[in-house]
């Protein structure tokens, strides 16, 4: 189905307004139709595996109860438009990279904290549905009327530093004076603490930003590099885990609670599938087995940090964690970090 973004926003806004003034919709249908979005294009095969798999699971296994109209590639909403549209009720659910929305939903920052992302990546069960950390995050999201159905069963391989030119960024001290693309608040703080200039650039604009010299380097995941063909612009990568993200499925809490039992059951079952397969498939089947071998075959210079570099990064990044704790509150922040690090249960 083809849909015009402007007409969609106008028409759904009218529907929301009608509901607000008590105007009743037409007769209920047996099948519930839900609108879901993601700004990511299918070229992100690693991430699309989970999102499209979720949609297909619902439509194929529960088509009698619910049908999903799904729009990828920002065809309906851009990355920055998704959360406002969810909150206003213009869409029913969204897939979103958590790093894009940590300023609006700060509890999600736990999945991007330097010094935390390493242990969280190595222990994905700490983020699975029903885990203490998952429940804590949903408690905090609930204060803003948002519910997460899943974070894909873990974070994606952490974001690292990809740079152009020679010698590029080969050490933490090389960050000073460089313009570095970031997305999340956590990455911004980390780059600034090492003297770099953080520039927020969406992945869709990153290729040209590197090509034109708008930025010298990028904090990005291997998924972004492959999905946007950034390997054509960068020459080396420093594998220091700066930050990370998960792909979350988000719904508006009151919309979720108002759904009929058949629709909720279908989405819950699909979310369990997503939780089991999404991050695992991306990290193992795509990154380790496909993307990294391809980059290395192209001659990309891969710099592995030694322990001294990792220790130095952790030392400086304490400021990032302290800023995040101040943002979410000391009790919640410390509890979330302990759960992510395996120090509490």
TrEMBL record:
Pfam family, one: DctP
Key words, A-Z: Signal
Origin superkingdom: Bacteria
Gene3D superfamilies reported for this sequence: Bacterial extracellular solute-binding protein, family 7
GO biological process assignments: transmembrane transport
NCBIfam families xref list: TRAP_S1 (NF037995)
Protein name: C4-dicarboxylate ABC transporter substrate-binding protein
Organism, as annotated: Jiella pacifica
UniProt lineage: Bacteria, Pseudomonadati, Pseudomonadota, Alphaproteobacteria, Hyphomicrobiales
């Amino acid at each position: 189905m083809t849909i015009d973004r402007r007409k969609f926003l106008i028409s759904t806004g009218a529907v929301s307004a009608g509901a607000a003034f008590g105007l009743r919709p037409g007769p209920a249908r047996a099948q519930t139709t839900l609108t879901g979005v993601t700004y990511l294009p299918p070229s992100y095969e690693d991430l699309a595996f989970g999102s499209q798999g979720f949609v297909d699971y619902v439509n194929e296994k529960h088509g009698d109860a619910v049908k999903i109209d799904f729009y990828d590639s920002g065809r309906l909403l851009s990355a920055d438009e998704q959360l406002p549209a969810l909150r206003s009720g213009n869409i029913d659910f969204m897939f979103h990279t958590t790093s894009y929305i940590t300023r609006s939903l700060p509890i999600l920052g736990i999945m991007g904290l330097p010094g935390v992302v390493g242990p969280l990546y190595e222990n994905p069960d700490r983020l699975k549905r029903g885990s203490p950390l998952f429940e804590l995050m949903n408690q905090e999201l609930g204060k803003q009327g948002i519910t997460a159905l899943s974070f894909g069963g873990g974070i994606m391989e952490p974001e690292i530093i990809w740079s152009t030119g020679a010698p590029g960024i080969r050490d933490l001290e090389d960050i000073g004076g460089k313009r570095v693309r970031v997305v999340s608040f956590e990455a911004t703080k980390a780059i600034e603490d090492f003297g770099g200039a953080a520039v927020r650039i969406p992945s869709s604009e990153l290729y040209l930003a590197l090509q034109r010299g708008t930025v010298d380097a990028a904090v990005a995941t291997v998924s972004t590099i492959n999905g946007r063909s950034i390997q054509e612009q960068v020459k080396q990568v420093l594998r220091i885990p700066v930050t990370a993200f998960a792909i979350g499925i988000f719904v508006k809490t009151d919309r979720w609670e108002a759904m009929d039992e058949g629709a909720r059951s279908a989405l819950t079952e699909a979310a369990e599938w997503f939780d089991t397969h999404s991050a695992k498939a991306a990290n193992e089947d795509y990154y380790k087995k496909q993307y990294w071998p391809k980059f290395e075959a192209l001659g990309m210079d891969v710099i592995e940090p030694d322990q001294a570099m990792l220790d130095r990064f952790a030392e400086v990044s304490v400021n990032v964690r302290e800023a995040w704790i101040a943002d979410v509150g000391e009790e919640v922040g410390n509890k979330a970090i302990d759960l992510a690090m395996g120090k509490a249960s």
